[in-house]
Write a structure and sequence with these properties.
Layout lengths: L1 H18 L3 H27 L9 H29 L5 H8 L6 H27 L3 H10 L11 H10 L17
Protein name: K-box domain-containing protein
GO molecular function, one term: DNA-binding transcription factor activity
Pfam families: K-box
Length: about 180
């Protein structure tokens, strides 16, 4: 009789174990649930970076998202400049400007600084044009003679440049200085 009771108890314990999932299976389910949560969070962040599903975000969260996007864009610009610089050793002023720009500045600051830089370059360009217009006609004639039949980058021949120089102001500023232009 004791044998029968022992067999019954042993079978009862085994039936309980069969219904209970194994510890390894519980661990796998836990990992799976954790990975699903991480995937959902990453998908939401990606959609928010694209400008989707922003309705529930606070102002602080939106500002943090903006900072993250600006930092990412700055890294993209740095990489672009680095790639351009690796095959072209001389960087342009715009590339130097973007490469050296601190990442914590906002887009508005970036564009206002860029606008300021472009207006300074335009002013410098105007000063250089004024200096060129003050060259004496004799010096201009010598410069054109040195580069006869050369076509400029904008498609004008040296004859049309000479005509443009002669049609300008005919001030006679002969101060005895030796001025020459090299076209390039």
């Amino acid at each position: 009789m004791n044998e029968i009771i022992d067999k019954y108890n042993t079978n009862s314990k085994n039936l309980g174990k069969a219904e209970q999932p194994s510890l390894d299976l519980n661990l796998e389910h836990s990992k799976y649930a954790n990975l699903n949560d991480q995937l959902a969070e990453a998908s939401l962040r990606l959609r928010q970076m694209r400008g989707e599903e922003l309705e529930g975000l606070s102002v602080e969260e939106l500002q943090q998202l903006e900072k993250n996007l600006e930092a990412g864009l700055h890294r993209v610009l740095q990489t672009k400049v680095w790639i351009n610089n690796s095959w072209n050793k001389s960087m342009t002023s715009n590339e130097r400007f973007f490469y050296s720009f601190p990442r914590h500045h906002s887009f508005a600051a970036l564009f206002s600084i860029y606008f300021l830089q472009s207006s300074q370059l335009a002013e410098e360009n105007m000063q250089l044009r004024n200096q060129v217009s003050q060259i004496t006609p004799a010096a201009a004639k010598q410069a054109v003679a040195d580069t006869e039949n050369v076509v400029a980058e904008d498609g004008q021949s040296s004859d049309s440049v000479m005509t443009a120089l002669h049609s300008g102001s005919s001030q006679d500023n002969d101060d005895g200085s030796d001025v020459s232009l090299k076209l390039g």
